[in-house]
Amino acid sequence: MIHALLKDGTRAQHARAEASLPVMDPALTRADYARVLHALHGFHAPLERQLAAVPWDRLGLDWDARRKTPLLARDLRALGGAPADVAVIPACDRLPDASTLARALGCAYVLEGATLGGQLVRRHLARTLGLGPDTGAAYYHAYGDDVGPMWRTFLAGLAVAVEREGCPPDELLAGARDTFDALAEWLDRTLAVPA
Questions:
Q1: Of 2, 3, 92, 147, which sits 20 to 30 A from 178 (CA to CA)?
Q2: Roughly what angle, to the nearest 10 degrees, separates helices 147-163 and 169-191?
Q3: At 164, phi and psi to the nearest 5?
Q4: How far apart are CA 29 and CA 52, in angstroms?
Q5: What residues does each domain of the chain span?
Q6: pLDDT of residue 165
Q7: CDD domains given for it (predicted)?
């Protein structure tokens, strides 16, 4: 099963990326959280533009419904950012390789998987910062009550990619690993506290 391969094969990269994302810190402030959203927007926006070229409809998936950049922009505005501020957020300059369908789907696996972990984060943000989907945590509420069904639909799309589109599982895995690594590097660079 492709999901087991991706989950097991990215365990180390996933842990590194998660460690670079301080959203579960009990001392997280609104300013810290806004910096995290800026960094995530800077990663998602250019990667989502690349992934828009994937033939999502052939896989039974609706790409527009899965884009997270609009949610991140909404959160930044809810936290006091102006639309002009969001428009000039620096974009990640070292994106993962999404040059093949398999690698692109490996990238998407990471972005979609974040919605599962986002369930824990959204509860933490509600407790510590009082944030909800309309007050700065829309990204972590992506898909609302449909997180499970959206995830299962995505996994079904991956199965179609392997079985009908001939996507090599090792390329899917490489795309997922590259994405976790690129995300961790980007977060480390953009969230580093100046000495």
A1: 147
A2: 130
A3: -100, -30
A4: 33
A5: 2-191
A6: 92
A7: HemeO-bac
Amino acid at position 171, single letter: E
Q: What angle do CA 44, 165, 56 make, to 5 degrees?
A: 35
Amino acid at the residue 68: K
Average pLDDT per block of 10 residues along the chain, 195 residues long: 94 96 94 96 97 93 96 96 87 96 97 92 95 97 94 95 94 98 97 66
Domain 2-191, CATH among 1.10.357.20, 3.40.50.1820, 1.20.910.10, 3.40.50.720 = 1.20.910.10
CA 80 – CA 118 distance, rounded (Å): 22
Q: How far, in Å, CA of 134 to CA of 16, rounded?
A: 30
* Amino acid, single-letter form, for residue 48: E
Q: Are 74 and 131 in contact (CB under 8 A)?
A: no
